[in-house]
Write a structure and sequence with these properties.
Elements: H1 2-8, H2 14-36, H3 45-69, H4 71-78, H5 81-93, H6 101-117, H7 123-150, H8 162-177, H9 193-216, H10 226-244, H11 250-274
Helix pairs in contact: 1-9, 2-3, 2-8, 2-9, 3-4, 3-7, 3-8, 4-7, 4-10, 5-6, 5-7, 5-11, 6-11, 8-9, 10-11
Length: 275
């Protein structure tokens, strides 16, 4: 999905790519609801709204960063979300992190500083790198909201199903990204037939990924899924270099390894506690 988004963002702004993806998700829910007789009645309103708003902000910033700073760096920054979800799960779900959490956070942030530090002289790029970190923080809160909405209630109350969570994400995500595409904050760029095909492919891949992630988080811890997600970072970094000639350096490579190591360290230690 990120690779296709990078390709189409050469001519279509990243925030418009994000909006099309969200609207496609709304259309899928509208079609699936009567076809499969889905129960979309919300039960945990607060967590659904949190998931939709923070998820929408995360995707909006992520797609804009793909356009501005490249798919590799944007994905690396965005996928530090599991570290942030540890903190939010502690604050809002009462899941106290182990003693490793501060070290994992420090290691991850050290890697991020190394990766981004070589470009601090360019203020414009620095702003988008900070936006990439903010997308990860927002994503971490969105993941925590999914877990809170999907987990079983000890008191016997019904949890949210994956389709309800996905519906809140796409609907509120559309509302979050719409102002960036319409006047006075933005303008719609009419895509060509080829660009519509790329936008459709990006939307389809994103929808499938979100549904699978939401389904998985009903059975996994928030950080458990992060082990698999870090493969995305490696593929995005390699793909960005191979397909789009995104610049890399020894400092950036070391920083990337430290960032991934920090996230994996927090994930694996958390899995050890929960198994």
């Amino acid at each position: 999905m990120a690779m296709v988004a990078r390709l189409v963002s050469r001519t279509i702004p990243g925030h418009q790519v994000a909006l099309v993806r969200f609207v496609a998700g709304v259309a899928v829910v509208a079609l699936a609801a009567p076809l499969f007789r889905l129960d979309l009645r919300p039960r945990r309103w607060g967590w659904l709204i949190s998931r939709g708003v923070f998820g929408g902000v995360a995707v909006l910033l992520y797609f804009q960063c793909i356009e501005k700073i490249g798919v590799g760096l944007a994905t690396l920054l965005n996928y530090t979300a599991p570290v942030w979800s540890l903190m939010f799960a502690w604050l809002f779900l009462g899941e106290r992190p182990r003693r490793h959490a501060p070290f994992a956070l420090a290691l991850t942030l050290t890697g991020v500083v190394l990766v981004t530090g070589g470009r601090v002289h360019d203020f414009r790029l620095g702003v988008w790198e900070m936006a990439g970190v903010l997308s990860a923080v927002s994503s971490g809160m969105a993941i925590t909201s999914i877990r809170a909405a999907r987990r079983q209630d000890p008191g016997g109350g019904r949890n949210e199903n994956s389709w309800t969570v996905f519906a809140s994400f796409t609907l509120l995500g559309s509302l979050t990204t719409l102002p960036a595409v319409v006047s006075p904050l933005g303008a719609w760029v009419t895509p060509s037939p080829r660009e519509w095909i790329l936008l459709g492919a990006c939307s389809l891949l994103g929808i499938v990924g979100q549904l699978l992630m939401t389904f998985s988080l009903g059975r996994l811890t928030a950080v458990g899924l992060g082990v698999i997600q870090q493969v995305t970072v490696v593929l995005a970094l390699f793909g960005g270099w191979l397909l789009f000639r995104e610049p890399t350096s020894l400092r950036g490579a070391v920083g990337s390894l430290l960032t991934i190591a920090g996230v994996l360290f927090s994930i694996l230690a958390e899995r050890t506690r929960t198994e």
